[in-house]
Amino acid sequence: MLGAVFSYLLKDTGTIGRSIVHSASANLILQDKESPQLTHGDGNLTVVIFTDYQCPSCKVADSALQRAIARDGDVRVIYKDWPIFGESSLKAAKVALAAHRQGVYFPVHRFLMKSAQVDDTALRTSVEIAGGNWEQVEADLLDHGTQIVRQLEANDRDAFSLGLQGTPGYLIGSLLVEGALTEREFTRAFKQARAEP
What is the distance of C-alpha 171 from the center of its chain? Predict the structure, then answer.
């Protein structure tokens, strides 16, 4: 019983992730202006999300992260689609980035993170529910496919430059976190990252 209590307290108060404050790669990634991003409040903390629409842990953590961001109110979020779960993941990431050209990346992302499937029906539905035009997405996938692939390749290089082994992965300020967190753990990670030198 005492061991369980100690384990809980350690998990609830221990350090989350690892500091990479001196990483040149991390500093460049935190300054990214090309990837889809949202700023909440004054955005005094940047969180970079490496995620895959077929990753079950990503889906669970996404809701927790959104709640932590809403509670905090001052977070800039950079989204890095990193499709590592095969062709369906790759197609979903391409559709999300094509939808970004219409300004509907974020609702598409949220829909796909809650969707049990990322098949063609789900992809089309995600765009239409977001207020986007599916035919325009298809056209943008053809006309801008090379740029979209380059963006995904850049995300892949960024993930590997940080040493990420899989999704989800988070760069929270200069704090690198691998794996899903709860809302409470994200909140602690935000506090910990802000305390970094």
Answer: 9
Helix, strand, or coil (residue 69) = helix
Helix (H, G, I), strand (E, B) or coil at 54: coil
**Environment class of residue 58 by beta-carbon count within 10 Å: exposed (0-12), middle (13-18) or buried (19+)?**
buried
Torsion over CA: 143, 145, 148, 153 (sign): negative
Low-confidence ranges of the chain (pLDDT < 50): 2-11
The residues, any chain, with a CB within 8 Å of residue 1's CB and separated by 6 or more, are none
Domain 17-194, CATH: 3.40.30.10
Return the DSSP state at 195: T
User: What confidence tens digit (pLDDT) does each residue in 165-194 have?
Assistant: 999 999 999 999 999 999 999 999 999 999
DSSP for 139-180 reads: HHHHHSHHHHHHHHHHHHHHHHHHT--SSSEEEETTEEEES-
Where are the chain's structural domains? 17-194
Tally Cβ neighbours within 10 Å of residue 174.
19
